[in-house]
Design brief:
The complex is a heterodimer of chains A (about 100) and B (about 120). Chain A is built from no helices and 9 strands. Chain A has about 100 residues and is mainly β. The radius of gyration of chain B is 14 Å and the shape is globular.
Chain lengths: ~100, ~120
């Protein structure tokens, strides 16, 4: 079965750029989506179709997808961005990555 | 603004059937190109897609759960439902109902309902 691999944790200083990766075989041939989940809350879509932002999502969130790795980039990271982030793609089924805990410190 | 609200028992006994319903408000469940999905999250763990249903009633299930899952839709009530049979403690999770926008061979999940915690215990 298809797998998406994310680093368990990423740390970033306020105002800096955070990059969260998601690796999967031939991921470039699929569209990746990204979800933000804060403690006790439901996930929220922040990126779809590799690099498109839903309305209401700040411009500091961006995405890319190349070869076997999709990347979520948060520019000028703020404390409110501290959350778990999950990537997702489709390969005969809907697949999620294991999630990355972003710490802003 | 579309909203999804899940409901159902928060406690289910082992070997019994988990049943949840999601009520969609702020829009019609018949509008496309949308699937209506269930996704779960075990305590402290990641997200697992369970399956989905189209307004025609066609369904798609996670192969790992397919033998135990039934998802159905009632367009007259703007609701869709999940049944998971023969539950064990491993099925303890927060269950989310979600709208999936599906475009040929890809899609994304938005918005998500508030989540319903279901505990499997005797």
């Amino acid at each position: 079965s298809y797998e998406l691999t994310q680093p368990p944790s990423v740390s970033v200083s306020p105002g800096q750029t955070a990059s969260i990766t998601c690796s999967g075989e031939k991921l470039r041939n699929k569209y990746a989506s990204w979800y933000q989940q804060k403690p006790g809350q439901s996930p929220v879509l922040v990126i779809y179709q590799d690099n498109r932002r839903p309305s209401g999502i700040p411009e500091r969130f961006s995405g890319s997808n190349s070869e076997n790795t999709a990347t979520l980039t948060i520019s000028g990271t703020q404390s409110m961005d501290e959350a778990d982030y999950y990537c997702q793609a489709w390969d005969n089924s809907r697949v999620f990555g294991g999630g990355t805990k972003l710490t802003v410190l | 603004q579309l909203q999804l609200q899940g409901s159902g028992p928060g406690l289910v006994k082992p070997s019994e059937t988990l049943s949840l319903t999601c009520t969609v408000s702020g829009g019609s469940i018949r509008s496309g190109p949308y699937y209506w999905a269930w996704i779960r999250q075990s305590p402290g763990k990641g997200l697992e897609w369970i399956g989905n249903v189209f307004d025609s009633g066609s369904t798609y299930y996670n192969p790992s759960l397919k033998s135990r899952v039934t998802i159905s839709i009632d367009t007259s009530k703007n609701q869709f439902s999940l049944k998971l049979s023969s539950v064990t403690a491993a099925d303890t999770a927060v269950y989310y109902c979600v709208r999936e926008t599906w475009i040929q061979l890809w899609g994304y999940f938005d918005p998500w309902g508030q989540g319903t915690l279901v505990t499997v215990s005797s």
